[in-house]
Amino acid sequence: MEKYFSYYHVYEKYHLKYAKGTPSLNGREFHNYHEIVWFLGGNAHLISKNIQNDLTEGCLVIVPRASFHQFNVSGDDYTRLILGFRETEDISDLVSAVMDEVKIIEKPDGSLQECLDRLRKMVVSDFSEEEKKLFIRASLIQILIYLKKCSIGAISKSTILSATVQSALSYIDGHFTEEMSVELIAEALHVSPSHLFHKFKKELNISVYQYIAKKRMSNARLLIESGNSLHFAAVHSGFGDYSAFYRMYKKNYGESPSCFQIRALNSEKHE
Length: 271
Description:
Elements: E1 5-10, E2 14-20, E3 34-48, E4 52-54, E5 60-63, E6 69-85, H1 92-98, E7 103-105, H2 110-123, H3 129-149, E8 154-155, H4 163-175, H5 182-189, H6 193-204, H7 208-225, H8 230-235, H9 242-253, H10 257-269
Antiparallel strand pairs: 1-2, 2-6, 3-4, 3-5, 3-6, 5-7, 7-8
Helix pairs in contact: 1-3, 2-3, 4-5, 5-6
């Protein structure tokens, strides 16, 4: 197989990517779908609110939707199989049991590895697109079932976050729909704004303002997907006016909020 490659299959409720090389998407620390990442090689470091670890070859990373996370990658050998999906009624119990927090499963058991390897091989096969769609869906259910039974050995808490940054995250997550600034957060935590700003950036590799903005955008997308109006999503995600929301949305996602709303509505119709 070529040195660098990328295979991507996108459907209404789930998608699969098998790739080697530098990630094509950066700055997406929050997303509105669940994600299971099989790390197959290279150098990568996971940053989240509850766990910060180097990834070891063969490990699985579990990322629930709307969870802050970063994969800091060095070099071009980053190889991964990424299964992203949205929750549907038939798998809601499995999703609730498995996708509870960001975690790493360092050594998936044999059955789970076999399922993942079959999925990896299927991506590059000559199956039809419809056959691949069915295979991915069936594999997703199998993987969730296996994950429900293999929680032993999962790393869910391994972090170097200071008490200040942990408190700041809790405050932001509880108040992001309100008026917010570094000064207001620092005052609530009884620390100086500059101290908070520098510690937050150093420990999470993202600024306080970026975290707040991305948290708000993520919440707005979830509200839109749930059938709410664009104005409702903007106001109930902490944006003072719709024009500010529109500009930030287009800057972050490269499209207007209404385009996303149309896709979300069409997806619901085809369930």
